[in-house]
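Could you join me in thinking about how sequence relates to backbone shape in a protein? We need material for that, and I hope you will provide a protein of your own picking. Label the sequence line and the structure token line clearly, so we can match residues to local backbone shapes. Would you write everything just below, so we can both look at the same thing?
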Amino acid sequence: MKRAIIIVLDSVGIGELPDAALYGDEGSNTLGNIAKEMKNAPWFSLKNLEELGIGYIDGVDYLDRPTNVKGAVGRMAERSKGKDTTTGHWEIAGIILDRPFPTYPNGFPPEIIEKFEKAVGRKTLGNYPASGTVIIEELGEEHMKTGYPIVYTSADSVFQIAAHEEIIPIEELYDMCEKAREILQGEHGVGRVIARPFIGQPGSFKRTERRHDFSLKPVKKTVLDYAKEQGFEVRAVGKIEDIFAGSGVTHAVHTKNNMDGVDRTLEWMKEDFSGILFTNLVDFDMLYGHRNDTEAYAKGLVEFDKRLPEILDNLKDEDILFITADHGCDPTTESTDHSREYTPLIMYGRNVKAGANIHTRESFSDIAATIAEYLGIDAKTEGKSFLSEILK
């Protein structure tokens, strides 16, 4: 009963890629810069990640390197163009994109907004790049008075719709997102349309946990699709189901926060099934990286690190655990956007060679190729398997 368990620490990059300057991300190193800023904080410890060998990853010279490590490690370069969530996850699953999803630094063109307003029967507010928490403070009161949804974007390829749950009920907001998703295709095919519900009163608005992402369908089959077609289970925790628009997923559960994501992952790890368990822990990105909250990000890393022994203890004999990321989001830089970075890869299992180092890989999709080979899946995806380098 073989299983691949993938945990994506959303935005935990480990240093700028060679083309980072093209994206305005020179100097970005999410994990490295956090570790350096927190080096004198007595509570900052990533002991369990260090015991798995994270300090031996190429370029990670700021964490401890125990003599005997438990896991295997590597560093992943992104081959696709872009630095967003969808691109990163799709590449992990075996798709490489030749061009990035469209972004809108000046807001969406009139023809898109006009089509959307006609489809939903309401005018809109906003239509400019903004932080989600900032824009609801700026426009939330007007939204409550007019009933007009707030439309905004970011440096990522997203069309976000914010609405107060008492003004636009959640199901109506989701319906608006589905209409936007139908409009945003082809040249305007953004990676994600995102529902951003909130509650409260002016001056004390709060976003709720009923966010929902409406992604494009993957442009071709991923290792998830091939696994499902060949009789394996593919269980998705967190926003994985949304990122892949449900494609290739057999079971899904959405989560409230990182620790809820770990809890749901553990629940499924304890069950018997063959296939892929794919988890995204989004708080690193959504709550800490985008808000440039270095201390909270560091505490989130420590919180995950403390749960690692529990995760390792619940691995079955033929499980392989892959811990990685999808991009960076360095909270120590001026930017509040994603950053174009290498990502870590940490692997562990009873069949994994402790101390193995696959060094720097050319694509995140090497993970998909490795999982396909391990599970015996006939899959036509991008990437080169490194299975022989990590198995005992």
